What does this fold into?
Amino acid sequence: MPEAFTHDVAVIGCGRVGLPLALAFADRGLSVVGVDKQPELLAAVSGGRMPFDEPHAQAVLDRVTVHWTDIVSDAARARHVVITLGTPSFSHIEIDLRDIRGVLDDLLPHLREGHALTLRSTIAPRTTEFVAGYLAKHRGFDVGAEVFVAHCPERIAAGRFFEEIVSLPCIVGGVGRRSGEVVGELFEVFGVRIDQTTPVQAELAKIWTNIMRYATFALPNLLMMDCEQYGANVFDVIELINRDYPRGGMALPGFTAGTCLRKDFAFSEERSHAPGMLLAVSRVNESVPLFLVEGMVRRLGTLANRKVAVLGLAFKAGTDDERDSLAHKLVRLLERELADVAIHDPHVTTPTQSFDDAVLDADAVVLATNHPEFCGTGPLRRIATGAKETALVVDPWDCFGAAQVFAYANEIAALSAAGAPAA
Ligand SMILES: NC(=O)c1ccc[n+]([C@@H]2O[C@H](COP(=O)([O-])OP(=O)(O)OC[C@H]3O[C@@H](n4cnc5c(N)ncnc54)[C@H](O)[C@@H]3O)[C@@H](O)[C@H]2O)c1
It folds into this structure.
């Protein structure tokens, strides 16, 4: 490490991606600065407590030392500065770079020769070149020779960080002659293959990894809506498509959103020469909650003053992450129907009722998240016992193995008895 630097690496933005990454670097023996602006988050980690669920993270936090700070310029103590800030999308279908620009402005006066800046956040094509240009414009650096800038996208799935950081190939798109090499050396610490490419190819590879998943899940969701229109069973049709067919397969329907999938398509769409296709994908996924509410209204007549239990608020099974979850959209839509909404989620920090209280005397129960706790015959029995005898069960994930998006509790209990795993 050159003498001017007292630390190996600084991570700016210690959220769902940055915090596990900072811990993983420290666990490999690197000296780490962790920067975040949220006082509660810093208080938690300084006190040795993970502020959110990520398997194995608490154990790593317990055994490593990180210099936690809310001062962005402290990051310049480290040779490597890794940016893991949020990159939301404006409703104008355009990346919101305000956090990244703000941090760059704080860092600018402190950058010096040898510094390497890694953009780990998901970013729109050409953002890495913009950042390199920003350093050249404001400080006159020769990027790739004096300082280094690369995009090294995070591709782990929440909940699998510590398994995937040591297994997923690491894509590095460096600006100029040596940025890729310098940043690649940092990530070699995880023992994974380093795939060197150009900055824009790294950006596209990450965005399109997520677009592929977003579009893949829109197809069964659209099929689910078509099946309702034609009086067909979506699970039967998917089984017919997939059974013994050698070319690919259709995924199952469900709520498709969350903090990444819901916005990353916009980073392609903002400059696309074929605009609209991904907007349509987004519209399909975003309309699933409304489709379910309309299906309930068709079957129950009205939802006004009827009790609807929503099981799950997290956007993903087995996690506590509620950001951009369609379950919240479902709750809002149900409230607009004047339903009495009761919610249960065993993982999230938002206070919710117990399972049994939520389903007690319910006129309808919606499986909004396919948490493992909700799947199988055990939870179904508790619904059949607690909810009204005529309760409608809405299960787009097929948690109960009855292969029915909409069915009555007694019907679904009979259907799932044959197929669902006991729980
Ligand atoms: N969450 C995922 O599973 C995941 C996976 C792959 C990629 N990504 C991408 O990684 C990036 C980060 O995502 P995330 O889920 O970790 O976001 P996050 O919101 O959990 O974390 C961002 C952190 O940055 C902090 N921050 C914001 N402005 C700051 C500033 N000026 N100074 C210091 N700290 C500041 C926030 O307080 C927050 O803790 C995004 O681009 C996202 O698309 C996320």
